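Lay summary. Proteins are chains of building blocks that fold into shapes, and those shapes determine what they do. In this project we predict the shape from the chain. Here is one chain we studied, written as its sequence of building blocks.
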Amino acid sequence: MNSKMAYWSAVVFFLFLIIPVTDIYGEDSADEPVQSAKGLKRAVRFYQDGTIKSVTVTYPDGTTSKKEYNESGLLVKKINADSTIIDYSFRIDDGIKIATERHPDYMVIRQFDQQGYIVMSKYFDHTESYVYEKDNYGDIQSVTIEYDNDSKVTLPTDDKRLSFLWDYDIIGSDDIPLYGNMEDKEYLFNPRRFKERMEMHKQYR
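And here is the predicted shape, written in a compact code that computers can read:
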């Protein structure tokens, strides 16, 4: 090896030592935290391609809850304000999307239709299905739960019994109130307004 090659080899080696690996390969990014009129604060982190990696919400009492997503945009973990953890996994059975939720002391199986809505949930002690009432714009106005004992109940979208739909962003969850225009509405978990940004980020990256 001549002296010139040895020199440049030494330079490259030196740069490798002083430049962090994250500078070479890139790193995750994050938006500035957003605070709502209710005192909720949302912080969003992104993968390198712009896909949401995690959303953390801090409540006025200082507790936090967090949702984590994989690089395909699927929810994989939820850490509640009381520190309990729910793990999510997904599979396709005969063309039907199935989600499994592993709670600390029980498990729930959820089945989706072709439009991405949850149509059935299987709990340890019962099964229930869902019928969605939508307005002319396609927004969900109410959900009817039909139980396996032939009873049913119709609920508004903000009913806590439908909170699992918020996790999958089927209905907006923990939303910050409107500030005049629909475009100003923010979603704390898996926020819809970021989806366009995510696609643009991928397109122009």
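What the prediction tells us: The longest strand covers residues 85-93.
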